[in-house]
Design brief:
This protein is of the alpha/beta class. It has helices at 2-15, 64-84, 98-119, 138-144, 161-170, 208-218; strands at residues 21-26, 41-45, 48-54, 60-62, 88-92, 148-159, 178-186, 192-200. The protein contains six helices and eight strands, in the order H-E-E-E-E-H-E-H-H-E-H-E-E-H. Helix 1 (2-15) packs across helix 3 (98-119) and helix 2 packs across helix 6. The chain starts with a helix and ends in a 6-residue tail after the last helix.
């Protein structure tokens, strides 16, 4: 899995241009018909977010302060977006329950596999969008009385002053990149019914306006 974590975002970066790119998939075998499912609730899982600073040598050093700021903006923007749609929500803030922590990690692993499948088609998947987090998500249904869960995974990096200066001097890329994906999971089946991937060499999760733009791209095509 460590291998997938490294090659999937890298390959995605190579395939996409410098502007923000988003592309989503909906499970045709288990579509979401929100109009016919009025009264359903979505639980917003605490986003898996990490913001890092790229050193002159290209090493990504996580920044706890930036990460917390970015996570707060993402949570607020997602909540306001769903509120504007009139969607009932529950919030799973600061996930500490061991089972829920594992579900967040599982979502990250499954999301990386989905990204890999866009590049190197897996024999059992190919063009079929058929992914699941398994029956363990039923615990979220029972605890939050929700029908779907929205999981978000984002990694964002920013160049240090020295790396930025070097990039300007040599007219070379900084290497900074914003990568993420979001999944809507049916808590009755565990199926990933919608998935959206995002890659951008611009934007900032450290500002309210920048985070709002990123969330708008991240939730593009959400079938709710």
């Amino acid at each position: 899995m460590r291998y997938l974590e490294k090659i999937a975002p890298l390959a995605l970066c190579i395939l996409l241009c410098a502007c923000a790119q988003a592309s989503n998939d909906i499970a045709t075998s288990a579509p979401v018909n929100w109009t016919a499912e009025r009264g359903k609730k979505v639980v917003l899982i605490d986003p898996d977010v990490e913001l890092s600073e790229l050193t002159f040598g290209g090493v990504a050093e996580p920044r706890a302060d930036w990460t917390q700021t970015g996570k707060n903006f993402i949570k607020a923007d997602i909540a306001s977006t769903l509120l504007a749609k009139g969607i009932a929500t529950a919030t799973a803030d600061s996930v500490t329950d061991p089972h829920e922590v594992q579900l967040v990690k599982l979502h990250g692993a499954v999301g990386q596999s989905i990204l890999q499948n866009y590049i190197l088609k897996l024999p059992t998947k190919k063009n079929n969008f058929d992914w699941t987090l398994g029956p363990g998500v039923a615990a979220l249904h029972d605890r939050y009385q929700a029908d779907y869960a929205l999981f978000v995974y984002v990694r964002d990096s920013y160049s240090s002053d020295s790396k930025m200066a070097f990039a300007i001097l040599t007219m070379s890329p900084t290497g900074a990149m914003q990568l993420g994906f979001a999944s809507l999971v049916d808590l009755r089946t565990g199926r990933v019914v919608w998935f959206n991937r995002l890659a951008s060499a611009t934007g900032s999760l450290k500002t309210d306006k920048g985070a709002a733009a990123s969330v708008d791209n991240l939730l593009h095509g959400l079938p709710l």
